[in-house]
Amino acid sequence: MSKYLVVVESPAKAKTIKKYLGSDYEVLASYGHVRDLVPKDGAVDVTNAFAMKYQAIERNDKHVRAIQSALRHADGLLLATDPDREGEAISWHLLELLKERNALKNKTVQRVVFHEITQRAVRDAVEHPRQVADDLVNAQQARRALDYLVGFNLSPLLWRKVAPGLSAGRVQSPALRLICEREEEIKAFIPREYWSLIAQADKAGTAFTAKLIELDGQKVEQFTVTDGGGAEAAREMLLRNSGGQLSVAAVDKKQRRRNPAPPFTTSTLQQEANRKLGFTSTRTMRTAQQLYEGIDLGGETVGLISYMRTDSVTLSQDALAELRQVITQEYGATSCPPEPRFYKAKSKNAQEAHEAVRPTSSLRTPKSVARFLGPDQLKLYELIWKRTVACQMTQAVFDTVTAELRVDGRNAFRANGSVLVEPGYLAVYNVSLDVGEEAEDDDKRLPPLEVGEQVTLADILADQHFTEPPPRYTEASLVKTLEAYDIGRPSTYASIISTLQARDYVRLDGKAFLPTDVGMIVNRFLTEHFERYVDYDFTANLEDQLDAVSRGEQQWQPLLAAFWKDFKPRVDEKMELRREEVSEARVIGTDPVSGKPVSARLGRYGPFVQIGTKDDEDKPRFASLRANQRIDTITLDDALALFTLPRMLGHLDSGEEVAVNIGRFGPYVRYGSQFVSLKKDDDPYTVELPRAIELIEQKAAALEAATLVRFGDTGIRIIKGRFGPYITDGERKAPLPRGKDPEALSVFECEAYLTEAAAAKKAGKGKGKAKTKSAPAKKATAAKPAAKKKAAPRKKAAPKKKAPASKGSGAARSTPG
Fold first, then answer.
1. ∠ CA(68), CA(72), CA(73), 5° rounding?
2. Least packed by Cβ within 10 Å: which of 122, 352, 475, 725?
């Protein structure tokens, strides 16, 4: 009989911890959450103090039953789920479920928390248990309830007023707003021209450059020179006045020191992994989870990093001591400062009880564990190890030189140089920069310069520039901005981004996020009609209140009541909107043929263009936008080009007409009554007859290769298909009856099968139409023959209909709204 049953979240974690605790402990996994809100309206009872109706997550119920069974043979239960709000909630939900099932009689129940999966940390946690923290549980319940209330009320409104299948969420919507607003800035941006003048100088054979800083007695700003004519005039004047020489008027020499960045939090880890490794936030967190839960190092399974969901930059005294030892061994005593470095978190809600993301032992260098790790694991572990080691190393030291080089009393250039003299932490790690940030030139050398001496002016280059719009968000810059605005929490950034992509609200163009038409329209609807709920300050304030709940400083039901009091009337009010008031319809121009307006819109099946209106005598014409086209940017010419389909390409030698079009399953070529799909690289708007014939011949060749039996010139043949042989005459199809030998069938039998299949297909269509006309009546009449069936089938119980899985069901982490 085990003394204790320990429950963690994942089987990998369970396996590692079992080795540390020994035979007195049984360790099982819950596989993430075990309960979630019932997936229907009313799961949060707004009339009853926001009581939440939960149900067991079906796919994880077998794991709960395994825990119940093991608990019968144990004295007590140790809940060892992750050390954060979500982990606390998983423990609480499991506890509630076990109480409902009377599985806790005479059992002690305690909560244990560890921030790294090492033998020391796990055993220390077991020796210092506590109770489940109600405040953390309440904070998680409040977040889940808010996400539910927003999602279950805004999403149906979007379905009715904009398009089916859309959704809105408490945190994802402000994140979408950031991306859309940046796109609007880019679209509205008007570039400005400006010119820079760069001197190409030389001293004793050493070439260097200097930038113009004073022109005709005035300080040079970005837009001092704004056209080529002005730039050329300034260049000629400077060359003429200089006489081929520049005078060194001032030399300023300084020593500059740069400090290392703090160790990783969840946010900064995601940002750096995106910039340096090209990892998405989801990929980063998945890999970090593996490193945290444990890696087999040749017989010893150990967690290689501390818990990866944290906003703290604190390092324990033990970790600091070990880091200083590693720095001295690997990089020399001069690279280790006299005292450890201590960092303070910028976030006002940082959980300082946690540590930063760090190696559980910095003595495990990336090189020493490389053979045990997969490619992603090694890259991420090396990034974490280097960042952690670097944060405790000495400063990097640079010698910098700034020289002023004058043409005369009214014109001057400036040259800058910087030389790294002591690498310090840069020997291990250099922080990467956001797109749009300028890198410092840390190794641009200048020749020795003395005040009063002359240097040669070889030439002056006039360079044209244009101001650029703000860059689109990457995952790294979006995470940084979300953190700066205090929107969401580090553990939710990955799911926020993946939700936006899954909803097709944004797409990645390289590394940058580009909002889709759907995303732009949803954002416009929310900002126009629910501005408060996508407001950055409102969202951040709500996060602060939720954090206050987790600290026991605020009650969760009053928080929900205050939110609901204003939110519900707003939703009810917007239900009265007409669809035309909220769906975007951009008039592009006028069709020169019909004289009707041409507009771009979002419809049930995506963005499209339309000629005419619903009020016209004849119906409007429609055409779907291509993948690279957008409602807000498509031109009239591009829109009209979409109506050129179907295109007639010509005729085959047999006289059959060949045309190209786009259908439900993509672009295709039609020849006679037959069809062949275009390939991925074929453009239906530009493909010509030779390519169409090539595709037709390829299809014919493939058909010939798959033909098992051909019946002369009848057109009937038996084909070897993907799901088994079938009979076809080019238009009709019928499966080959099971057990039938293709070689033994006659053409008459094949014709009979084809006729029978066609009749059944026709009857099926008719039956479906009749059923939709009067479904209840059909159901009622269908019940009568059922009584005449055999007893056994009649008594057989109908299978229970499964409830649809609720959002985030079964996941180790709940998805934010």
1. 125
2. 352
User: Lowest mean pLDDT: which of 532-541, 542-551, 795-804?
Assistant: 795-804
Residue 766 has a pLDDT of: 59
Q: 619, 623, 616: which is closest to 599 by C-alpha?
A: 623
The pLDDT value given to residue 443: 63
What's phi and psi for 624, nearest 5 deg? Answer: -70, 145
Question: What residues does 55 pair with on adjacent strands?
Answer: 36
In the set 25, 54, 194, 307, the catalytic residue is 307
**Can 307 be counted among the known catalytic residues?**
yes
pLDDT, mean of residues 470-499: 92
- What's the rounded Cα separation, in Å, for the pair 203 and 183? 48
CA distances from 597 to 623, 632, 637 (A): 14, 16, 13
> Which of the 8 DSSP states describes residue 360?
S
**The token pair that represents 497 in the structure block:** 């981004």
Measuring CA to CA, which residue among 601, 606, 638 is closest to residue 620? Answer: 601
Question: What is the average pLDDT value for the chain, to the nearest integer?
Answer: 88
- 80 CB-contact burial (10 Å; exposed 0-12 / middle 13-18 / buried 19+): buried
Q: How far apart are CA 385 and CA 374, in angstroms?
A: 16
List domains and CATH numbers for the chain. 2-132 (3.40.50.140), 145-189+472-577 (1.10.460.10), 193-259+397-466 (2.70.20.10), 269-392 (1.10.290.10), 584-644 (no CATH), 711-761 (no CATH)
Quote the CA–CA distance of 432 and 446 in Å, as a whole number.
25
Residues 356, 265 contacting (CB under 8 angstroms): yes
Q: Which helix (H) or strand (E) holds 95?
A: helix 85-100
Residues 6+ apart with CB under 8 A from 99: none
540-550 pLDDT, tens per residue?
999 999 999 99
What is the DSSP secondary-structure string of 193-204? EEEEEEEEEEET
Looking at residue 51, its pLDDT comes to: 95
Per DSSP bridges, beta strands 193-203 and 206-215 are: antiparallel
Rounded to an integer, what distance in angstroms lies between the CA atom of residue 270 and that of residue 275? 9
Q: Report the distance separating Cα 186 and Cα 277, nearest Å.
A: 27
Whole-number Å distance between alpha carbons of 448 and 608: 66
Rounded CA separation 542/536 (Å)? 10
The mean per-residue pLDDT over the stretch 42-56 comes to: 94
Among the listed ranges 491-495, 568-572, 793-797, which one has the minimum average pLDDT value? 793-797
Is the distance from CB of 501 to CB of 515 less than 8 angstroms?
A: no
Say what the pLDDT of residue 434 is.
57
